[in-house]
Amino acid sequence: MDLGLEDFEILLSREAIRERVAELGSALAAEYKDRDLVVVGVLKGSFLFMADLVRHLGPKVTCDFLRVSSYEGVASTGNVRFDFDLTQPIVGKDVLIVEDIIDTGLTASFLIRALAARGASSLRFCALLDKPSRRRAEVPVDYIGFTIPNRFVIGYGLDLDGLYRNLEHIYALKPEIEARL
Ligand code: IMP
């Protein structure tokens, strides 16, 4: 079934997102006040969220990016690998990983383990969205924008086959459409 934007409805408006990102930004600005912080965006989904979030932080912030992809190995264990990696060592640095959404938690748990092994002096995880009902790996998430039900979402960085990342609102697949899939 080919899905189009008409099959989706707004779940979180641009205004709700803006307000919540500002709240997360001030909490982070307070936590990292006067500290050098490396903000690590997980591409591609986090690019809008990260762009808005870092504008709330102080001057001693550097931005870096990585990209991972997942593939299924042994039945219930997802495997994740780096497509590309950070451009700087993070040993002794305060690091904040910024992700669009935590679904099964496999990506987040892989990233936390991988970056912790590089000797960061602190490592925190911030996700705009959390779908806890689908969790397969426990992840210590420090900052969450919104906890959402188990619905497929697009917009504000999140895609469907590469499309819709540029939408300003976050949309969820309409339940009647989901029921037909
Ligand atoms: P996890 O390893 O299952 O937690 O995967 C997280 C990744 O799956 C996110 O970074 C997204 O790229 C993708 N993802 C999970 N749920 C959705 C969704 O509802 N819409 C778009 N992408 C999603």
How does this model look, in words?
The protein has 181 residues and is an alpha/beta fold. The protein has 4 helices and 9 strands. The protein has helices spanning 14-31, 47-54, 106-116, 175-180, and strands at 8-12, 37-43, 61-72, 78-84, 94-102, 122-130, 143-147, 153-154, 170-173. It has a 6-stranded mixed beta sheet with strand order 4-3-2-5-6-7, sandwiched between helices. The chain has a 3-stranded antiparallel beta sheet with strand order 1-9-8. The radius of gyration is 16 Å and the shape is globular. The N and C termini lie close together (7 Å). It binds inosinic acid (IMP). Inosinic acid binds at residues 45, 70, 99-108, 152-154, 158-159.
Highlighted features:
single chain; 181 residues; alpha/beta; 6-stranded mixed β-sheet; 3-stranded antiparallel β-sheet; 33% strand; globular; binds inosinic acid
Reconstruct the topology from this structure.
Layout (H helix, E strand, L loop, with lengths): L7 E5 L1 H18 L5 E7 L3 H8 L6 E12 L5 E7 L9 E9 L3 H11 L5 E9 L12 E5 L5 E2 L15 E4 L1 H6 L1
Parallel strand pairs: 2-3, 2-5, 5-6, 6-7
Antiparallel strand pairs: 1-9, 3-4, 8-9
Helix pairs in contact: 1-2
Bound molecules: inosinic acid.
Let me know the number of strands: 9
Encode the helix/strand succession as letters: EHEHEEEHEEEEH
Largest sheet, described in full? 6 strands, mixed
**Lateral arrangement of strands in the main beta sheet:** 4-3-2-5-6-7
What is the helix content?
Answer: 10-25%
Low-confidence stretches: none
Ligands and ions found: inosinic acid
**Gyration radius over CA:** 16 Å
Count of separate DSSP helical elements: 4
What percent of residues are in strands? 25-35%
**N-to-C CA distance:** 7 Å
Which structural class do you get from the secondary structure elements?
alpha/beta
What number is the mean pLDDT? 94
